[in-house]
Fold each of these.
Amino acid sequence: MKTNPGGQLAPDEVVGRDRLIAKLWRILERQSLVLTAERRIGKTSIIKKMTAQPQFGMRVFFRDVEALRTPLEFVNCVFEDVWADLSRKQQTMKRVRIFFEQVSGGEALGVKLPQTVAPHWKTLLTKTIEDLAEQQAGLIVFCWDEMPMMLDNIKRDQSESLAMEVLDVLRSLRQMIPNLRMVFTGSIGLHHVIARLKETGYANSPINDMFVEDVAPLALIDACDLAEKLLRGEQIRVVDERVLAQAIAEAVDCFPFYIHHVVDALKWTDEPQTADLVAKIVQMSLCDDANRWDLAHFRVRINTYYSAVEQPLVLGILDELAATGTPLLLRELLERLNLQQVVSEPEAEAEAVRKLLDLLRRDHYIVQQPDSTYRFKFGLIQRYWQLRGL
Ligand SMILES: Nc1ncnc2c1ncn2[C@@H]1O[C@H](COP(=O)(O)OP(=O)(O)OP(=O)(O)O)[C@@H](O)[C@H]1O
Ligand SMILES: [Mg+2]
């Protein structure tokens, strides 16, 4: 297998996700799914593999919706997918056609919905899915990759209320059509988008019927397997392939994306390919100006998703947790943050930090351990954060 950091993988190149995929299919039998995880963990690869290898009798659609900016663009994607699917089976979209003729002023229904029908996007979406559901007895699964990004786009370009309406319509469709499932994936947390909508009066819980699954990096055994396959595929000759593969997997916390990168770097070097060289590659990549490991977003997105008031506190928390050799209790963290100038009330101070710690957990920066201490979730990201602060 060849290295391909960040590229599209063929289903058989997606290493070590079979058990997770089997679990996701079982969840989908009963409800819809939200797949969350840190960036570059392999969410898209997982759902693309599921789309390519659906369970018997299911119809699975995949769409990257990141670039969509209006509800009509979104409905168009769904419509195109359903149109293509039903046309292949020589089936028609009766409900959509009848409704379209009523609202389009005589225009014939084509593969693209015209802008003139934009005000009717909700009905068109509903009728599209109803037409499909009528002709598909098994489960229908729509995988929408980067859904939070699309909602954020709609919110920014259009309005908060339109983004809310999209979430509400999708929820009501899930409730109306028993064999319909949705999979939302994305690297920005849906909770940020929904939290902001709530600030503007949105009271619903639009995804509380969906199962939230957090995707972890690969298990060590699978990460070693991936590293070995890549070493072999790139014909990198070493004394003990297994030992080097394990050194690579452990050096990058079993993130498959970084495993691809390390083997890729090994491929181009003339130095002896040892665990020491792996450590050197990782170290250099953590400070890479070209940001090939895509780590800069850990810093950048704090400005996007945390308010101006929260940002200094968030950065302070992460700096302290990065610097410490041992995980910290809330009390210890508060001592180190030395917040007296910012907040005069000690309880308010603790509450503000607690709230941000919760958000940082949901954003996969940190974890709280069973003994209540907090630490960075991934050692690699902690080292990146330390190096930025030096
Ligand atoms: N299971 C896997 N086996 C082999 N390589 C993988 C696997 N998962 C991810 N990768 C590697 O990591 C890269 C990123 O994976 P992917 O695009 O699926 O992640 P993602 O979580 O969707 O990222 P983002 O949050 O940026 O959308 C892939 O191009 C590939 O190099
Ligand atoms: Mg992705």
Amino acid sequence: MKVRKILIIYYSRTGFTSTVANEIANSCGADLESIRDIRRRFDGKSYLRLVFEAAMHSDTLIRRVRYAPDNYDVVVIGTPIWCWNVSNPIRTYIKSHRHQFKRIAFFCTYGGSGQVKIFQDLEKLAGQAPIARLAVKDSDIKNERQHEEVKEFTEKLNNCIL
Ligand SMILES: Cc1cc2nc3c(=O)[nH]c(=O)nc-3n(C[C@H](O)[C@H](O)[C@H](O)COP(=O)(O)O)c2cc1C
């Protein structure tokens, strides 16, 4: 029997998206890969550049990925929201790999707004509709209130590949 596989790809600058990505991976036994941006995004100058580049939808330089998305039945893509936009490392990843996606799902983490637009943008970038979406607020992650919605999201992934 063919083994069905899920790959989770995410970018996280300050850890929120990473927390959700790990929780999803643990509950569905998925492979997990963090996208690494070659540019530094932590000092004051790089923060301003990040805001500018997010608004401009610029591509960035990311490190080569370990897992080939075309080996997976579902690729789950996770991003923080930056200025109502997809983070640039995830934008760059999707543009380079979208021809390799069989089915996709999206999740994002955010402070308070922009999640509806983000999902529309992700769908346009990837060129297909997702099988599931999940938006998790930072405040819910801080207070560990995300578990129920992560579980529902994971169930949708598992049901889809049965
Ligand atoms: C430059 C920048 C822009 C942001 N813009 C938004 C935004 O438009 N809407 C929002 O809800 N949160 C926004 N946030 C908050 C992040 O989306 C949120 O903290 C996210 O969980 C960070 O994920 P990470 O910890 O995985 O990097 C922004 C954060 C940064 C650094």
